[in-house]
Amino acid sequence: MKFLEPSPYAAELADAIADFRLYGGMRNIKALIGEAGLAAAKAARAKKYADAITLYRKEAGRPDVEPAVKMFCMLEAGKAASRAKDLDAARAAFAEAAVGKPCRERMMALVFLGMIETRSGNLAKAMEHLEAAVAEGSAACGLIAGQKGKSLKALFTAEDESIRSAAEALTDATAADAPIAKRIAEAKAKAAKEGKKVILFWYGPYCPYVMAMRERLAHPEVKALLEKHFVLVTVDQGAPHRLAHLDEEYGEVMSCFGVPCFLVLKGDDASPDVRTDSGLMGAEGRTYSVELIVEWLKESAEAE
To answer: Angle at the Cα of 130 (from 110 to 157), degrees rounded to 5?
Structure first.
């Protein structure tokens, strides 16, 4: 934040900064959570679930509480209530956690709500929550598939065939990643028409290095090169809870390359040219060099 807030491009990054405050907060939750939150976790470990719920709600209700802390606490309160078999309290807590900005915790809260409504016999409401979870991130597909014979069994064995088929569809990560896959396909078509190349900027908004790179991409010289020679597609993998299928399709990006990284696509569908962020850092400290980014973009534009 010390790097971003004084940046001349801070206004252009307002939404990204808001994302970072949430995702970064989730990543550093132990440093942000207060005494009531710490006591709640201790109570939950001791199986004192009623105390845990009360304390998590107290922490979430602090006047100065960070959005990340509030969402985390309500998710944990819901888990505690579920373990206490208090479905009404669990439903209320998960519903509060699901109100926040899109992130992994919101996705999980929606899946938990789907499980609760399934157990309660409210199959239509359960599907509504699970569909929202999958829209949030395709990692939800794996969570749903793992509960086919457990908490979500009633959906997959429902008498109504439309419910069964809709539930099965929610386990398909390929379909869940279709919107970003469509954007990449459209970028390829645009690039072919304009004689440009496609660059995928793969990132997660929880990472401070991603934020620093986004700041550099707003630099006039970098921005001009991107607009002249490339079609840029930002690929947000979340926390990571999105793009379970596409991540694998493009070479297990998160595990093999990390974020931020760039994938320059080739017209013949060969493996993309990958540029990790380490090669774009200047000699002094771990900061990205505009000069190195410009040099790399020029080389990539000229490469066959």
So the answer is: 135
Tokens describing residue 232: 């840029």
Amino acid, single-letter form, for residue 279 = G
Strand 261-264, strand 197-203: pairing: antiparallel
Q: Mean pLDDT across the stretch 51-60?
A: 97
Other C-beta atoms lying within 10 Å of the C-beta of residue 196: 18
198 forms beta bridges with 231
List the structure tokens of 248. Answer: 């694998």
Residue 172: DSSP 8-state: -
Averaged pLDDT, 248-255: 87
Three-state DSSP at 186 gives helix
CA dist 94 and 104 (Å) reads 13
Q: What is the DSSP letter of 48?
A: -
Q: How far apart (Å, rounded) are the C-alpha atoms in residues 33 and 304?
A: 51
Asked if 247 and 35 count as a contact pair (C-beta separation under 8 A), the reply is no
Distances (CA, A) of 17 to 6, 60, 93, 289: 12, 22, 27, 20
Q: Is the pLDDT of residue 269 over 70?
A: no
Least trusted range by pLDDT, from 45-49, 89-93, 153-157, 234-238: 234-238
Q: What is the pLDDT of residue 92?
A: 97
DSSP 139-157: HHHHHHHHTTTTTTHHHHT
Give the SS3 label for residue 289.
coil
Counting runs of H as helices and runs of E as strands, what totals does the chain give? 18, 4
Element (H, E) at 79: helix 67-83
pLDDT score for 169? 95
pLDDT of 245 > 90? The answer is no
SS3 state of residue 288: strand
Q: Tokens in use for 53?
A: 């719920």
C-alpha pair distances (Å), 144 with each of 96, 109, 127, 149: 21, 13, 11, 10
| Each residue's pLDDT tens digit, 198-218 | 999 998 877 778 888 988 999
